[in-house]
Amino acid sequence: MAKNKEISYWPHMIMGFLLIGITLGYWTVKSATSIPVHESNEYLMKYQQADMNINEILKRKAAFDRDYSIGIVGAKMAFNTIENSKVAKKEKSVILTAGKNSFQYRIAKKDGTVVPDAQVTFLLTRPHTDKEDVLLEHIPFKNGTYLAEDVNVSNPGRYILRLRVDIDKNSVGYLEIPAYLKP
Questions:
Q1: CA 157, CA 75: separation in Å to the nearest integer?
Q2: What pLDDT does 132 receive?
Q3: Whether residue 91 has pLDDT greater than 80
Q4: 36 pLDDT higher than 70
Q5: How many Cβ atoms from other residues are within 10 Å of residue 118's Cβ?
Q6: 55-64, 72-81, 158-167: the lowest-pLDDT one
Q7: Composition of the chain by helix, strand, coil, percent to 5
Q8: Which of the ends of the chain has fewer CB neighbours closer than 10 A, N or C?
């Protein structure tokens, strides 16, 4: 009887592939759970609430836009060119300064009279992240404008200034202005 002395490597390869598959599965789950999820805050609320109430939000915004206007006052503005893969467009944006910034907003009726009793909420945020968000609720009315003071901006880059104005339960306005802090 002749003994076969050939060694088969198939069991080792199967175990190796199984070990690689388990390792890659573990790595995928670990890296997916370590990346934080950043939620949209376009209407100064979680996107789930905005999705459920979008018709009501748009109805209140239309009522606000019909009777009132919002504008930023005294901010240094510039035109920045946004280059897309197809089209380059110019966007008017606020120029921020490193450190403390203040933003003045004027809320008026369509006839020009200033609204002194609105509930105003201010949010400074960055696109695609909420780590550096600055939320100021109940912005005070001073000298004919609503003043968001002492907003600290330290990292250069792109920001968004968001404002929510509640006049009454049927009239809510929103303003979104891009902003930049140059390095």
A1: 17
A2: 82
A3: no
A4: no
A5: 22
A6: 72-81
A7: 25, 45, 30
A8: N
| pLDDT tens for each residue of 140-180 | 998 889 999 889 998 898 899 999 999 988 899 999 999 99
Contacts of 46 (CB under 8 A, 6+ apart): 39
- Between 6 and 96, where is the model more confident? 96
3-state secondary structure of 15: helix
Six token digits for residue 150: 């002492």
Sheet holding 119-126, edge to edge: 77-83, 88-95, 171-181, 157-168, 119-126, 129-137
Is 149 in contact with 65 (CB distance < 8 Å)? no
Taking a C-beta distance cutoff of 8 angstroms, is the pair 47, 136 a contact? no
CB 89 within 8 A of CB 115: no
* 112 DSSP assignment: S
CB 147 within 8 A of CB 103: yes
Distance CA(95)–CA(75), nearest Å, equals 8
Q: Where are the beta strands (DSSP E) in 47-96?
A: 68-73, 77-83, 88-95
CATH topology of domain 47-181: Immunoglobulin-like (2.60.40)
Residues in the chain: 183
Q: Full-prediction pTM beyond 0.85?
A: no
